Amino acid sequence: MTYRELAIPGAWEITPVQHGDPRGVFLEFFQGGAFEQTVGHRFGLAQGNCSVSAAGVLRGIHYADVPPSQAKYVTCPKGAVLDVVIDVRVGSPTFAQWDTVLLDDVDRRAIYLSEGLGHAFFSLEDDSTVLYLCSTPFTPAREHGVHPLDPTVGIEWPTTDRAGRPVTPQLSDKDTAAPTLLEAAERGLLPTWEQTRAFAEQLAG
Questions:
Q1: Which H or E run includes 27?
Q2: Domains and CATH numbers, the chain
Q3: Which active-site residues does the annotation give?
Q4: 3-state secondary structure of 134
Q5: What's the pTM?
């Protein structure tokens, strides 16, 4: 298993070693020891989620209040999604920037997003299945969103699915109604770089 830190501090791409034979494939998609050695603290698992999405479904941008926010370890065992991490931390040197990882059933990579980061993904195939390991339970009052098509963020979403067919983003009503990044900042809804750094130090201690 190898870790590659993404362009957004606090996010990593994880590539597992796959063991295949005529029967199929086996892999370890999470290793606590490797995670702690790389990230600097243990992953406290509090909840596991699963979503299934049609091609073109766009989920996010989602994030939670810090502390405790909600760190996520995400993989796609079936289908394919373009997974995106967005820096929504006010004061961060990479504020409003983003990076991507292709999660699919070929390379079977995962992505880890630490507390305070925004998360979104675009489904590239019908029935794409995404599994999330979450550090805290879902708490509606502490959950927030930014519109995934916000031009200030400028994410380059796919225009074709896995088979090369044209697709257009399908958003939930909640995501459609989400504020832009600047509107969220003006309302005081975004976490700050200082908050997330302090919380990360607390976890490492």
A1: strand 24-27
A2: 2-204 (2.60.120.10)
A3: 62, 132
A4: strand
A5: 0.96
* CB 12, CB 36: distance < 8 Å: no
pLDDT, position 115? 97
**How many helices and strands in the chain, by DSSP H and E?**
4, 13
Q: Tell me what the mean pLDDT of segment 102-129 comes to.
A: 98
Instruction: Kindly indicate the confidence band of residue 203, based on its pLDDT and cuts at 50, 70 and 90.
Output: very high
Buried b or exposed e, range 168-180, using 16+ CB within 10 angstroms? ebbbeeebeebbe
- Per DSSP, 160 falls in state B
Rounded Cα–Cα distance for residues 77 and 166 (Å): 23
Long-range CB pairs of 191-195, under 8 A, 24+ apart, other chains included? 191/63, 191/65, 191/66, 191/69, 191/88, 191/89, 191/90, 191/115, 191/116, 192/66, 192/89, 192/90, 192/91, 193/89, 193/90, 193/91, 193/92, 193/93, 193/95, 194/91, 195/66, 195/67, 195/89, 195/116
